[in-house]
Amino acid sequence: MGKDKIRRFEENATFRCVVQPAFEEVFGQNHRLKGHWKSDFFGNDNPVVLELGCGRGEYTVALAERFPDRNFIGVDVKGARLWRGAKTATENGMRNVAFLRTRIEFIGSCFAPDEVDEIWITFPDPQLRKNRVKKRLTAPLFLERYARFLRADGSIHLKTDSRHLHEYTKAVVERNGLPVEACCADIYGTGFADELLSIKTTYEKRFLAEGLPITYLKFSPGERTVFEAPEFAPDEAL
């Protein structure tokens, strides 16, 4: 492990905004903050918004800057990456930002029913290989995890450069009859991008430089708790 990574891991341990559960704290049992993020961590009753697979935490921090009356939690397993967002939040004294270092598979151990108001998924790994489809963050098994803690009227935002993931998620949404609030295959080319969608992460800037269109989909799981996979594979149809 490089010295820079070691330094970041050590610094993460000093940041109030970073929560790093041990494996045994989230595997098969509930983390101490489950159901208590507002009272025990943020000290307020404001809405909670997650960014899953937050990477460097750029979107989490940018959203928190724009909405000081909401609580934002970036979730990622890569501590050396989320260090950047945690350091920015710490240096700027941002009390409405947290970073949770854990696997998305364990997310249900960290949040209680109706504890989360919105979910952002920004530029996740599209998992293009056929044997990895179930690992997509918008696959039915993951949606079932989110539905356990996302409010019934809560929204899921997917922003990605991957046309495959965008089309796949649309197919999942259609298969399950989920309410769609917004859908765009090229947010910049069509002028669809507003202030929030125009927030650009390091990865997004790279994708735009390569000429890749950025897609967006906003939908809600509603009252559903079980989700079905689409009958066809959009990846194969493209």
Structure description:
Helices cover 32% and strands 19% of the residues. Helix 6 (140-147) links the parallel strand 5 (116-122) and strand 6 (150-160). It has 238 residues and is an alpha/beta fold. The protein is globular, with a radius of gyration of 17 Å. It has helices at residues 3-12, 23-26, 37-42, 58-66, 79-91, 140-147, 163-175, 202-209, 234-237; strands spanning 18-19, 48-52, 71-76, 97-101, 116-122, 150-160, 180-184, 215-219. The protein starts with a helix and ends with a helix. It has a domain at 113-237: Rossmann fold (3-Layer(aba) Sandwich), CATH 3.40.50.150. The mean pLDDT is 94.
What's the layout of helices and strands?
Layout: H1 3-12, E1 18-19, H2 23-26, H3 37-42, E2 48-52, H4 58-66, E3 71-76, H5 79-91, E4 97-101, E5 116-122, H6 140-147, E6 150-160, H7 163-175, E7 180-184, H8 202-209, E8 215-219, H9 234-237
Parallel strand pairs: 1-4, 2-3, 2-5, 3-4, 5-6
Antiparallel strand pairs: 6-8, 7-8
